[in-house]
């Protein structure tokens, strides 16, 4: 019995946590500290805060992986959720390891906008597209993150003659197409943008650079 107890403790999953980008939400964990824990299989359950019964996640029932996709299960983005994981090895089951409480709307990382750049004589035209959530409308199109948040776009210009690292904020607002005027011909300019949520005071990472020479 003691040996079993020891195995039980040593295969118990560690660091159970939710990771989420644009509401694509996964539960991650690390194997227990026993060397043989790498051969363990895992079982995942989830529930909404306040519910008494846990739900099994069938796709993550007896899996060797250390990650489980719970995007579909956490689609009510204002609700707080918990996840938990247990391991089994050689007929022995560990206790459950619990995540902390996770509320998608407050905690998902919002990605940068998709940026495309065109130019006409002395100006650059920047087109911005909000990141998509994984959730779909009845007709099948994906719902963008602007449905869930009051998103602003922040657009920065980098003049490559001056300094690659120096970003100048040229626009903040909700427009999807903006025009940056009075630029110098023959100079290479790069544009990066990010999304900003005033209510949460949070910015996304920067988009990848889109560069153009006038």
From TrEMBL:
The organism's place on the tree of life at top rank? Eukaryota
Is Repeat one of the keywords?
yes
User: In the UniProt record, does the keyword rRNA processing occur?
Assistant: no
* One GO CC term on file: extracellular region
Q: Which UniProt keywords apply?
A: Disulfide bond, Receptor, Repeat, Secreted, Signal
Q: Where in the cell is it found?
A: Secreted
Q: In terms of one coarse class, where is the protein primarily found?
A: secreted
> Cross-referenced Pfam families, in alphabetical order?
Interfer-bind (PF09294), Tissue_fac (PF01108)
| GO MF annotation: an example | cytokine receptor activity
Annotated Fibronectin type-III domain ranges read 12-107
Chain's role = Receptor for IL22. Binds to IL22, prevents interaction with the functional IL-22R complex and blocks the activity of IL22 (in vitro). May play an important role as an IL22 antagonist in the regulation of inflammatory responses.
Q: Which family does it belong to?
A: Belongs to the type II cytokine receptor family.
Task: List the protein's name.
Answer: Interleukin-22 receptor subunit alpha-2
Species name = Edolisoma coerulescens
Organismal lineage: Eukaryota, Metazoa, Chordata, Craniata, Vertebrata
